[in-house]
Design goal:
This protein is α/β, with parallel strands linked by helices and 520 residues long. The chain contains 22 helices and 10 strands. It has 2 domains: 163 residues, no CATH class; 327 residues, Alkaline Phosphatase, subunit A (3-Layer(aba) Sandwich). A hairpin with a 2-residue loop joins strand 9 and strand 10. The chain starts with a helix and ends in a 5-residue tail after the last helix. It comes from Salinicola lusitanus.
Length: 520
């Protein structure tokens, strides 16, 4: 009986120690052996104070731990942190409201199941300890308060809730300029905008990442490369990066303004004009193509609601892919870009001005989805090296643009090559977060002189910069919250800093209301 109790005692303490160590490892990005060291220290303390020893059981009453709910909330936070590298509460809220069906994150779904099992096992271990040791029955009540107070998930919610009593809830709205074009050009240029999933310019550091960014660096020599494009809060996932660059605003979720809280959003940002609206009004034929489903995260609703004529994703394109040649998200990038080339050729031949937007997915964390053509070019993929997938993205994009140019399809055309956002947690995470990070943004063609423009900026500055690169005149070089990087006007980050902007966003109500005006 005593032996059996001792086994349960040390199993429970060991498992709790490993869980604490794992949480510390994930949050502070520490080496893999961290849980072992923490568990050993935890066991040493437990042995010193006889935690769970038979002599410490004062009653047979079966108490339930007060810390059950706080521990569950911490497991939720650790799962999100482990999946994405940092908690982005805006992303969680938006995806729950916009729809998470048809997503390709099979690995994170499996991880979610494992996390659930691990959390249940920890609750069992903590319950045993509380019942076995009368001191822990008291300590864990106090501990539960600390777990609630210091959970970043709850801290983020409290910051958002504080906005309702903020004295300056219209700060961003006061600086918002509705996007408009006040003067056109004799021959409207075409636009090709290529979003590269998670392929940030940080990978251009050859000392840390070798030649992963080589093709994109060479491509940038042909046009204007922008340095210093930082990531504002609420612009750090694909849909948010697209909104920031096309609407000039962060994607602040609808929140409580969405009437039917348990149903998907009917529209995405119906209250503002975006790039698609402006170009549609000028007779452009607008197309979006991506390898993943457009149902995920409201992409189809956003594009169709903002002037796009054609919106194509996995559901519409998978029958055009080679048999069996799909990944968890959808089409591989070589298939997508082949189809995009055909689409652009048709758009070009129509004689109408057009804008084509494409989204790759090879660089999707944590390991990427490199195409077979990349494997033929780069050699075997080990299944985990994100730098391999980043290089694949750059190689495919560069070849794609060279093919279009060789066919004469880039005449009177502006080409934008950009990351949709900074990468979330991947296999090169420790190297990525070791230094300052920034997004990829380069513009080629349409008479632009090759050069580097280095300015503190963010993705909301892309919209006015792009409009001026196309030759359009906009009021005061501004659109949305952005400022054209071709102008001398200061960006909001230059005037107030990134931290100030993020702080203002957490207490903003007016602009958020304007973005979602009319949503059901």
């Amino acid at each position: 009986m005593t032996i059996s109790r001792d086994i349960r005692r040390w199993c429970a303490l060991t498992y709790i120690g490993l869980c604490i160590g794992y949480a510390i490892m994930v949050v502070w990005v520490l080496p893999w052996w961290t849980p072992l060291v923490i568990a050993l220290a935890w066991l040493a303390i437990g042995r010193r104070f006889h935690w769970g020893h038979v002599s410490q059981r004062a009653t047979q009453r079966k108490a339930w731990p007060w810390s059950a709910l706080p521990l569950i909330l911490w497991w939720v936070y650790i799962y999100l942190d482990d999946s994405f590298g940092q908690l982005d509460l805006g992303a969680v809220i938006f995806h729950l409201q916009a729809g998470i069906e048809e997503n390709g994150s099979t690995d994170r779904q499996i991880a979610g199941v494992l996390y659930t099992v691990a959390a249940i096992a920890m609750l069992v271990a903590v319950t045993w300890l509380v019942r076995a040791d009368h001191r822990w029955r008291l300590w864990e009540r106090v501990l539960s308060l600390f777990l609630l107070a210091f959970n970043p998930l709850l801290f983020g919610l409290s910051l958002r809730g504080a906005s309702v009593i903020d004295d300056d809830e219209s700060w961003l709205d006061d600086r918002y300029r509705p996007p408009e074009i006040v003067a056109g050009v004799p021959q409207p240029p075409n636009l090709i905008y290529l979003y590269m999933e998670s392929t940030e310019r940080t990978y251009g550091d050859t000392q840390r990442f070798g030649n992963a960014y080589e093709d994109l660096a060479r491509l940038g020599q042909e046009g204007v490369v922008f340095h210093g494009v930082k990531q504002l809060d609420n612009t750090g996932w694909t849909m948010a990066g697209m909104v920031a660059s096309q609407c000039g605003v962060p994607l602040m979720p609808a929140g409580l303004m969405h009437d039917n809280q348990f149903e998907p959003l009917s529209d995405v940002l119906p209250g503002v004009d975006c790039l698609g609206d402006l170009l549609h009004a000028r007779g452009y034929d607008l197309t979006y193509m991506g390898g993943a489903s457009t149902k995920f995260a409201g992409k189809a609703k956003f594009y169709r609601g903002h002037g796009f004529d054609t919106v194509l994703g996995r559901d519409e394109l998978e029958d055009k892919a080679p048999a069996g040649y799909l990944n968890d998200w959808g089409l591989y990038d070589d298939t997508l870009l082949d189809l995009a080339e055909k689409r652009i050729r048709r758009l070009h031949d129509s004689g109408k001005p057009y804008a084509f937007f494409g989204l790759t997915l090879a660089g999707h964390p944590p390991f990427g989805h490199p195409s077979q053509s990349c494997i033929d070019n780069q050699g075997d993929f080990d299944g985990t090296d994100i730098l391999y997938s980043v290089k694949c993205t750059g190689w495919l994009i560069r070849n794609f643009i060279e093919r279009l140019r060789a066919e004469g399809l880039l005449d009177n055309t502006l080409v934008v090559v950009a990351s949709d956002h900074l990468s979330m947690k991947n296999s090169a995470w420790e190297e990525l977060i070791a230094e300052e990070r920034e997004n990829t943004l380069m513009m080629l063609g349409n008479g632009l002189r090759p050069r580097v423009i280095e300015r503190p900026s963010s993705m909301v500055d892309v919209l006015p910069t792009l409009l001026e690169a196309m030759g359009y005149t906009i009021p005061d070089h501004r659109a949305g919250l952005g400022v054209s990087l071709f102008s001398s006007s200061p960006t909001l980050i230059e005037r107030y800093s990134l931290d100030e902007m993020n702080q203002r966003m957490r207490s903003e109500n007016r602009l958020q209301e304007q973005l979602w005006n009319g949503v059901n």
